[in-house]
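hiii so um. not sure if this is the right channel but i have a protein structure encoded as tokens and i wanna go backwards to a sequence. like what aa goes where. can anyone help
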């Protein structure tokens, strides 16, 4: 039996008649809570040898997004439920619709891009902790809720990690959590976040599981969350059908006698810190970091793909054909990164290598997006001879420590915020693998230039290495504005002054 923890005030009889409590079927509930990775201990607290998080639970994921469309009549009381997600339902009392018949679609987007995009940037310095999946309500253009009856339309969402979050935050009751509702604005589709501390909000308990219901005024995307300044607090793990990707690409040191070389390409979820992945790659396989383009802002769905290696400066697996094909199975619920390794032969002397290869990613399953995507790999332009033993030794000798870079940034912080060309330097830093896709997106979402510069400063000072710092200095020194060039030189010189630290 469901027990209502927090009474809904002023609920009229018609709403009480049609509001259905969460599905109390234990089997269905267990399937759902297992599907979202929250049955048992589901925290990702370990990594495999490729940097992929390992779950401590039986992890299942539904392929695609659960979706239900129902033709709703204004003269009837309507309830829309998604069977794959017990407890999720939309309750529409009679006369709440502005038209006689309206097809309404209820979808579950988990926490996948692009649906979640822009949400974290709304919280400034706080971190969002999601207690529900993102749920989307769609209707044909022009159809609205009846303004006189819209407050009676109720959306109910499951809160699968509510009990665990109470323990983490040392809160006795779910109703005492600082619950917030994020919803998209009808006009500009930007996220708005507001408190759920309202008498019209109800929290239901069914067999030790929790659900929240609240009135809605328009068709939009909704998700329940809380804000926290603690970035390490437990995050619930929902299934994922698709993810924004980032790319890491390296060449090994060439065997000049055999004219062979190894190419490693890593496709990773952009939410993963690429520096953690790089640390797991053997040193011999990351002699030179490659420049790449073509997959910016690309989202990859779960499913089977074919990778077509197009020979350019390298010949894959020593095969002289125009291209070599290979399979790739992506499931973001099992792995956060995928390693592609190619043993290659050099077409020409290493000093002449510019265009390395092209990798085409071709959907070979039931994906919604079947367009081919191409990754272009090139040698880095900032190094005259990336394979020179002399230049490599010189770089190691002139490298700086984290303490040196921190001292330099602290000493020149005011000039950093004044001079740094923040808007034009973000993409080059991303291409150089200094910033991740998510970090760049978060900075671009900041409306004020100073806030963008502050985020970049914090990342460089507290989360990057001396080598990353030198890449920044080189980008500044190569800028066409003399003031920026001068600052790049001063910044590197200031760091080298701190060599005794």
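sure thing!! here u go:
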């Amino acid at each position: 039996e469901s027990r209502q923890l927090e009474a809904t005030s002023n609920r009229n009889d018609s709403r009480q008649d049609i509001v259905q409590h969460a599905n109390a079927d234990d089997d269905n509930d267990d399937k759902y809570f297992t599907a979202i990775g929250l049955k048992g201990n589901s925290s990702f607290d370990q990594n495999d040898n490729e940097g992929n998080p390992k779950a401590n639970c039986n992890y299942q994921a539904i392929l695609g997004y659960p979706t239900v469309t129902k033709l709703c009549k204004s003269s009837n009381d309507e309830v829309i439920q998604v069977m794959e997600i017990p407890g999720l339902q939309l309750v529409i009392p009679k006369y709440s619709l502005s038209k006689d018949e309206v097809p309404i679609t209820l979808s579950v987007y988990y926490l996948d891009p692009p649906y979640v995009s822009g949400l974290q940037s709304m919280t400034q310095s706080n971190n969002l902790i999601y207690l529900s999946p993102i749920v989307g309500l769609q209707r044909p253009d022009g159809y609205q809720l009846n303004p006189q009856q819209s407050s009676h339309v109720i959306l109910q969402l499951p809160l699968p990690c509510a009990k665990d979050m109470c323990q983490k935050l040392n809160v006795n009751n779910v109703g005492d959590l600082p619950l917030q509702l994020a919803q998209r604005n009808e006009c500009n589709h930007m996220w708005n976040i507001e408190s759920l501390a309202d008498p019209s909000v109800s929290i239901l308990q069914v067999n030790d599981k929790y659900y929240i219901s609240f009135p809605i005024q328009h068709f939009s995307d909704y998700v329940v969350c809380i804000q926290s300044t603690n970035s390490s607090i437990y995050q619930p793990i929902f299934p994922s059908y698709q993810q924004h990707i980032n790319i890491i690409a390296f060449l090994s040191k060439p065997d000049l006698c055999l004219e062979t070389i190894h190419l490693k390409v890593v496709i990773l979820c952009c939410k993963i810190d690429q520096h953690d992945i790089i640390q797991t790659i053997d040193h011999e396989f990351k002699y030179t970091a490659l420049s790449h383009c073509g997959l910016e802002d690309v989202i990859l769905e779960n499913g089977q793909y074919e990778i077509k290696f197009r020979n350019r400066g390298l010949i894959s697996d020593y095969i002289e054909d125009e291209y070599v094909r290979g399979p790739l199975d992506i499931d973001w619920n099992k792995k956060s990164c995928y390693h592609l390794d190619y043993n290659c032969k050099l077409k020409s002397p290493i000093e002449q290598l510019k265009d390395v290869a092209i990798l085409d990613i071709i959907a070979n399953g039931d994906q919604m997006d079947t367009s081919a995507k191409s990754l272009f790999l090139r040698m880095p332009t900032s190094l005259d001879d990336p394979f020179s033993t002399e230049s490599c030794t010189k770089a190691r000798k002139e490298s700086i420590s984290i303490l040196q870079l921190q001292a330099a940034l602290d000493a020149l912080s005011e000039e950093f915020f004044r001079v740094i060309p923040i808007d034009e330097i973000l993409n080059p830093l991303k291409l150089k693998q200094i910033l991740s896709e998510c970090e760049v997106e978060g900075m671009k979402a900041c409306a004020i230039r100073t806030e963008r510069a502050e985020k970049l400063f914090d990342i460089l000072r507290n989360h990057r290495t001396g080598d990353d710092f030198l890449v920044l200095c080189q980008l500044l020194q190569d800028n066409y504005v003399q003031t920026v060039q001068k600052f790049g030189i001063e910044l590197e010189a200031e760091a080298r002054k701190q060599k005794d630290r």
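oh and The longest strand covers residues 101-110.
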